[in-house]
Write a structure and sequence with these properties.
Two copies of one chain form a homodimer.
Chain A (H helix, E strand, L loop, with lengths): L3 H5 L3 E2 L4 E6 L4 E2 L2 E2 L1 H15 L5 E9 L6 E13 L2 E10 L2 E11 L1 H4 L7 E2 L13 E2 L17 E5 L16 E8 L7 H7 L18 E8 L8 E6 L2 E3 L2 E9 L5 E10 L5
Antiparallel strand pairs in A: 1-2, 2-6, 3-4, 5-8, 5-13, 6-7, 7-8, 10-11, 11-12, 12-14, 13-17, 14-16, 15-16, 16-17
Helix pairs in contact in A: 2-4
Chain lengths: ~270, ~270
């Protein structure tokens, strides 16, 4: 049985390196479709265009305009393919309107991430109470986002210390920590990790700045094939200036290994 | 008088959104020209193509092959231009060989970075002794890189605790901190910050992994127009796995403000 995520990010080939997708209204948030959902859709098209290199090692997306549910087209141009990695450019459009332009370098994590030549890994998962002792996103919906279909896609369990914003008491920490899994318990893989990297609410919520924070640019690195089970996710920001903020996301798998990281530059939230 | 940096990154228009550059042999390191130098050259061409939006807010570069001194061409395609930001794609080639493909979103930092709507900034400059009490790059050249012309471009003063690698005693910290300025005291600006983000030695040196670390992808965010004077720069990495590592760089200006940050995914160093 196909998971909701896999069905929603499916792409259909239409000629060489050209794909169509049907963007689902199940991933609406704020002013459009979730950026991570769109990134995963683009990444699936790039994977189709790069046989033998299934995994996004690094993908950089610049968001041009808000995507809407419905038909979309992804054009992929292979820029380099040789050795252990390949690089491609991908553009997602709806009609004549560009939504996302991305550059992506792919490889095979099953061959790269042996850990054999690991030199160092100080990255550690966030300290989180057990999922049953955390706060579910089902009961932590900020005012104005009750109707966001995106919230039904995930099972998120927030650290109780990080969720004051949901009840009008933001803690000002600039840090958000949560357990994460997909609604139908689909286990994570390198493609779904791209979704996870933009799934939590904007870290600006912890400063009481609620509402949708449009992404300008997001670059994701997938560092290893994730183990099955719950993921642990952190969002953090250290500088909000000039109406922009950076959001660093880290995703750790059930073994505690850092499997994906991202940084995005986004606009401070607009009132919902 | 034109600074060495400005002369070396100059671009000449050759038709609409097409530019030529003469890549200087003064920026050689390891297997090719320094990635930050190349990024700044690409960024200068993008600036030429986006009038009224002089500053790279976010630029994502995927490195396709090592660049050589000599003629290069930069083609820029404007993907979106309207409102306060514009996004373009840029490709740097030498002959028929692609060297770098980039996506860049530009704006006007002098209008954005008023600080008026700053909500939060916990990012703080590294703790460094005075420049005269730090270790100059003139006396901290790792074996095999003595001939790197790049080292003549910068005045870097490393934290004494972070420089053991230069004498065969790497401290294993995964952290490198230094003062930075250009050789001819050219004051920093948003364009030169792109160079600074890839100027220090790879943080892998602190683990005794010496040699050139080829960049796969580097994304830079310029967060503010830097004040004149010395910059403070940190390089850090928390996960080295599968032959790859991430390197986070932060640049603080003389007022202690975070003015630029980057993350790159690079290959573990090859023996020099």
């Amino acid at each position: 049985m196909t998971s909701v995520f896999d069905a929603a990010t499916a792409v259909t080939p239409r000629g060489e390196h050209r794909y169509t997708a049907e963007l689902s209204d199940g991933w609406l948030i704020g002013g459009g479709l979730n950026g991570g959902y769109l990134l995963a859709t683009v990444a699936r098209a790039v994977r189709e265009a790069l046989p033998g290199k299934p995994d996004p090692l690094a993908i950089s997306a610049h968001y041009l305009s808000a995507s809407r549910p419905g038909a979309a087209e992804v054009d992929v141009r292979v820029l380099r393919d040789g050795g252990t990695v390949a690089t491609a450019a991908a553009d997602l459009r709806q009609g004549d309107v560009g939504r996302i332009s991305a550059l992506a370098t792919y490889g095979d994590l099953s061959r790269l991430s042996t850990g054999a030549d690991d030199l160092h890994a100080t990255a550690a998962p966030p300290d989180l109470p057990a999922p049953e002792d955390c706060v579910s996103n089902a009961v932590s919906v900020p005012v104005g986002l009750e109707a966001a279909s995106l919230l039904e896609r995930f099972d998120m369990r927030f650290h109780p210390d990080d969720i004051g914003w949901a009840s009008g008491r933001p803690n000002g920490s600039g840090l958000m920590r949560a357990w994460f899994r997909l609604e139908d318990d689909r286990d994570p893989d390198p493609l779904s990790l791209l979704l996870v990297l933009d799934a939590l609410p904007p870290v600006t919520f912890t400063f009481g700045a609620m509402g949708w924070a449009p992404t300008i640019e997001l670059t994701a690195h997938v560092r290893a094939v994730p183990a099955p089970g719950w993921l642990r996710v952190t969002h953090a920001s250290r500088t909000m200036a000039g109406g922009l903020f950076e959001e660093d996301c880290e995703v750790f798998d059930s073994t505690g290994r850092l499997v994906a990281q991202s940084r995005q530059l986004a606009r401070m939230p607009r009132p919902v």
